[in-house]
Amino acid sequence: MSREVKSVDYGLEKIFEGAQDFLPLLGTDYVEFIVGNAKQAAHFYKTAFGFQSLAYAGLETGVKDRASYVLVQDKIRLVLTTPLTAESELNNHIVQHGDGVKVVALWVEDARSAFEETTKRGAKPYMEPTVEKDEHGEVVRAGIYTYGETVHMFVERKNYNGVFMPGFKEWKSDYNPEPVGLKYVDHMVGNVGWNEMNTWVKWYEDVMGFVNFLSFDDKQIHTEYSALMSKVMSNGNGRIKFPINEPAEGAKRSQIEEYLDFYNGPGVQHIAVATDDIIKTVSAMKARGVEFLSSPPHTYYEDVPNRLGEHMEIMKEDISVLESLGIMVDADEEGYLLQIFTKPVEDRPTLFYEIIQRMGARGFGAGNFKALFESIEREQELRGTL
Ligand code: FE2
Residue 285: which of 31, 52, 47 has the closest Cα? Predict the structure, then answer.
């Protein structure tokens, strides 16, 4: 995948006042999952989500204790890693959390500086700056812990032109399903424990220089049964957005509590990926077997013109098509957005995906929270975890 590093197109202009400049982030570099069977997980992401084979590391490349498959779709890179031996420390991650996200890697200009600036502000180190080399150049990586066992890895690849990273070889496959139009990671959401949201908001402010640019309290995010609170953290150029959720008291068990119980602590709840054509993307994903949450009721779609107001004029999508696919609509002052959520993609009710198409709106679909959570609660009811 070509990711040319040119200083002219960094796009590091500050769009959020108050964000600090000590940690310039160019984008999401990769997301690494620890899974029970990486070979099969890779097949799922190719077949169902339209990812392409990119790189591989394992026994054939001299790695003895793990196998990793790297998948790509436009700017999104997933790394699926599994332990090969009983002694591997990765096993404990699977025992504790099931399949889940271990690393949210951030693309930086200078990994050593990113490590130094964040650890001096209180980040717990995960990996000291490390240089990896091969015939294509060098990559410098360093990592810090965030919530739970999740890690932010800083990746500096300006002196590298290989397919992914030293230690990996190109993965050529005879099986190459078409992409479904997923383009980049829009945001990644973390679930943290009771009374921990503000601790992590402050951590992202102090350690990473992020700003809190949107907040939702339990008065705004609730159903008849459950509630949660959420604060959206962003870096200065808006490329990295991490909403953080915390459960709130409700009559029944909220989806956040369910997550925390099954993930055995804080972790990544959902990955939102952007598309330019959500109808095409979601139709393809459904045809390939991806399961989405059930559609909101018909009354929800009758209310869409009200909700969109003046943005109705620019809306190109046919509401009945959105309804048939279960795609939700929300608007803010700047435009509208279309979004839909998958069911969890592993047996534990933990990580799921959001597919989002932004038509000017910068929000997160607050107007859909109630319909969304009611849909999740119908699933929780079936699992006996509400
Ligand atoms: Fe989201």
Answer: 47
